[in-house]
Amino acid sequence: xxxxxxxxxxxxxxxxxxxxxxxxxxxxxxxxxxxxxxxxxxxxxxxxxxxxxxxxxxxxxxxxxxxxxxxxxxxxxxxxxxxxxxxxxxxxxxxxxxxxxxxxxxxxxxxxxxxxxxxxxxxxxxxxxxxxxxxxxxxxxxxxxxxxxxxxxxxxxxx
Length: 159
What we know:
Oligomer: single chain
Number of domains: 1
Mean pLDDT: 92
Shape: globular
Low-confidence stretches: none
Number of strands: 11
Number of helices: 1
């Protein structure tokens, strides 16, 4: 969407360094497509692109189970990785949780990422998606990602 490729490494002090490099085209087999969706003509009319890595059939199963649907003989374990808030972390945080635990909760918006268009004619108000992680392109080509609240944003999970 932004037209950058990112390379991450740690410097001698253990700080994470991310270098952004402009990408003109993406290739897949014989196909080529221009990189940088938000740079395309007319893209200023798209305020943001929304993606949810958790919008899966297992999410429906988990939320339905928590709402009381289905057999109580079924036991679900959800495990995966969540966003690590440490800015120098080399890896996300692994998790495992029992869906039939009375304290288990999962919202429909969990896993929601909003990639904001830096050229939007009408920028998206982040308050419209308060539980999402909002990503903003920085002048150096890197992203500033802002997560509201104290929840851990899932990156991937399986049940």
